[in-house]
Design a protein that fits this description.
Length: 277
């Protein structure tokens, strides 16, 4: 059973392949082991993302666990996964359009049993190691930017670096409403939003605020989409760059899936799924 549907992985791979740097795969003496094709490594890394298993469980005679880790590090150094996420977001913006009038920001805590650069003591898991993801999404739940930190960090200090993703999106509508939960209900948060020219829609402390009462529910839904990728729920990576690599891949998968789903309603193309994704 494939980790993801082919109509998601095929366009991802085609674009990812175009971003890969050119390499000379032929040894001058012709006496070395042939390089494992990038497409094989990409498919296995997608399986690791979705299933959350160790590299050695995905490895086989076609591709070893060492090759998976080595090729992953090559792609991290080249920055191709970040470019893939950005290009997927730009494609969604051209075809469907980002809803930037309403932006939602929230955090999500996941497990990090091996610790690492991004891990901290989790306040909701008996002090065990965990990672906090602070994510900004548009009005339809498309990831705009993600900041990772230790699970013991408060949500408010992560708001500024999370909102920095809006600066790379070009012209923004006026005004831009930022929907936040009661954990951000403080004077520094309101001052930060005012300095950036953003309108804050913040749930007040001490008052009940149903999730459906505001437009904040979309970020909760996107967090659940990311948590469907088990590598992020139970992250055993210790290096911060590797954690960001998996988050970028997860965001690219989510954006392409939403692009196909929304495009299915509006457009027709060759190879279009017969049923709505």
């Amino acid at each position: 059973m494939p980790a993801l549907q082919r109509y998601i992985t095929e366009p991802l791979w085609e674009q990812f392949c175009a971003l890969l740097p050119q390499r000379d795969v032929h040894h001058p003496l012709g006496c070395h082991r042939p390089r494992v094709p990038d497409c094989v490594v990409f498919e296995k890394l997608v399986e690791v993302l979705v299933f959350g298993c160790a590299y050695w469980r995905i490895a086989d005679e076609e591709c070893s666990a060492t090759t998976l880790r080595r090729r992953r590090d090559e792609w991290i150094e080249a920055g191709v996964m970040d470019e893939l996420e950005e290009m997927a977001r730009e494609a969604y913006d051209r075809a469907i359009g980002l809803d930037l009038a309403d932006v939602a920001v929230d955090c999500c805590i996941t497990k990090a049993p091996c610790g690492g650069e991004k891990a901290g003591r989790s306040p909701v898991d008996r002090g065990k190691r965990g990672i906090k993801r602070s994510m900004a999404v548009d009005g339809e739940g498309i990831p705009l930017g993600v900041v990772t930190a230790g699970a013991n960090r408060h949500d408010s200090p992560l708001l500024a670096p999370t909102l920095n993703a809006l600066r790379t999106l070009g012209g923004l509508p006026e005004p831009v409403s930022v929907h936040l939960d009661r954990g951000y209900d403080s004077s520094p948060t309101r001052r930060l939003l005012e300095e950036r020219g953003l309108a804050g829609v913040i749930s007040e402390r001490g008052r009940s605020a149903p999730l459906g009462a505001t437009k904040r529910w979309v970020v909760e839904r996107t967090n659940s989409w990311q948590n469907a990728h088990k590598k992020l729920v139970w992250c055993t990576e210790r290096r911060g760059q590797v954690v960001d690599f998996w988050i970028a891949l997860s965001n690219a998968v989510i954006i392409v899936a939403r692009l196909i789903r929304e495009g299915w309603i509006r457009y027709r193309w060759e190879g279009r799924p017969l049923r709505r994704p």
